[in-house]
Amino acid sequence: MKLAIKNLLLITSLFTLLVAPVYADEHPAQKLVTDTSKEILARLEKEESVVRAESDRLYQIVEEMVLPHFDFKAMSSWVLGKYWRKATDEQKQRFAKEFQMLLVRTYSNALLEAIGKQITYLPLKSNKADAEEVTIRTEVEQKGGFPIPIDYKMHQKNGEWKVYDVVIDNISLVANYRTTFAKQIKDEGLDKLIEDIAERNSQRKPS
Predict the structure, then answer these.
(1) Contact at 8 Å (CB) between 4 and 183?
(2) Rounded Cα distance, 30 and 22, in Å
(3) What is the pTM of this model?
(4) Which end of the chain is more exposed for a tag (fewer CB within 10 A), N or C?
(5) What confidence tens digit (pLDDT) does each residue in 90-117 have?
(6) Partners of 161 in the beta sheet?
(7) Which range has highest mean pLDDT (69-73, 88-92, 145-149)?
(8) CA atoms of 119 and 110, how far apart (whole Å)
C-alpha cells in the first residue's frame, strides 16, 4: 500500500503539471490533459493560500477538475480483479467510493507540492489513428538523475477520453494496487480492506 501511495503522489504531480506544445492536429486525449493542466495550474496559483489553509477547498478543486477525467468504475473493477466479480453490489459501491476518495486525498496532498515541476510531453503512442485506447507519454526531470517516464493510459467511454491506468517507469498503478489489495483481501477479506481504506481516508489531510 505504501508503495502504491508513493507512486500515486508522483503521478498526480505529473498529471496536474504537464507542459505541452499545442499542435493543430493535437489528439483529443492530449488536448484534454493539456487543457486540464493549464486550468488547474491557474486555479492553484489563484487560490494557493486558501487551499493550503483549507483542505476541503483543495479536495473540491480536485473533485471538480481532475476526477471527471478518470474512469473510476473501470479502475475499481480492474484493481479488485476476481474479487470485484465476487463482491456484492453493496461492497462494490463501498469500495468504489473509498477508492475514489483515496485518490482524492492523495491527489490533494500531491497538488500542494506540485507547483514548479518541469515535465516533458512526448508524442502520442497508439496503434492507429482512430484507436479507442491511447497512451499519453511524459517524462519528469530529476535533479542529478535521469528523467522518469510516466505513461497515462486512456480509453474512450461514452464518447469521452478517460484515464484508466498510469504507468511509472514501467510499473502500472492498477497492477500495483491490485497486488497489494489482493493480498489483504486474501488474508482479511474485502470488508476489512474497505474499512482500512476508509480509515486512511479519514486521516489523510494536506501537509
Answers:
(1) no
(2) 9
(3) 0.74
(4) C
(5) 999 999 999 988 877 776 666 666 556 6
(6) 156
(7) 88-92
(8) 15
**Can you give the C-alpha Rg of the chain in angstroms?**
17
Residue with cell 506544445: 21
Residue 179 Cα distances to 26, 38, 87, angstroms: 35, 34, 17
d(CA 96, CA 71): 11
Phi, psi of 144 (to 5 degrees): 75, 15
Asked if the 2-203 domain carries CATH number 3.40.800.20, the reply is no
Greatest alpha-carbon span in the chain: 52
- CA distances to 89, 137, 195, 196 from 187, rounded to whole Å, are 22, 36, 14, 13
Query: 203: how many CB neighbours lie within 10 A of its CB?
Result: 8
